[in-house]
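Re: the request from the purification team.
They wanted to know what the chain is likely to look like in 3D before they choose a buffer screen. I agreed to run a prediction and write the result into the notebook, where they can find it.
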Amino acid sequence: MNARVMKKRNQSLQENIEAVEIHLTNIKRIVGNLGSLFPFTAEKIEHITFDEQDRCDALLFRFTHAQDTLADKIFPDFLDAIKEQPVAAVLDRLSLLERLKIIDSSYQWSDLRDLRNNLSHEYASNADLQADLLNQVRDSIPVLVATFDRIKKRLAESD
């Protein structure tokens, strides 16, 4: 790979890291603002204010973007930056990241992808499902944060 392509990839990786940093900062703030509503129930969903609904929507937006950016952009560029062989298949990439101890479990990240897909397709269907998905998002945030921190640490070590 020539130097210009490598520089562009490193710039893209840095931009995506900055984007995820912003998403995670906002996620933590939003969860703090919604604190008393967790854990969500169908009854709580049916009685939330417009402001609380906006916060829930912002949480889901930030979560899906952070998860997408990590899995689809940062993971491949990170592997390239640490000189690992390119891996096109998502499950193979997750297995490699697990072996490198960047993620705890490839199954866990597959579940995160399923959660993200459910948020896109099923979120508004009923109060029980909304409550369950919001609780799953809140419970999944530490996984995103830990993975992101490991990536940043490994990149700092490889400089």
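For the purification team: Residues 3-34 form the longest helix (32 residues).
Please add any questions underneath this entry.
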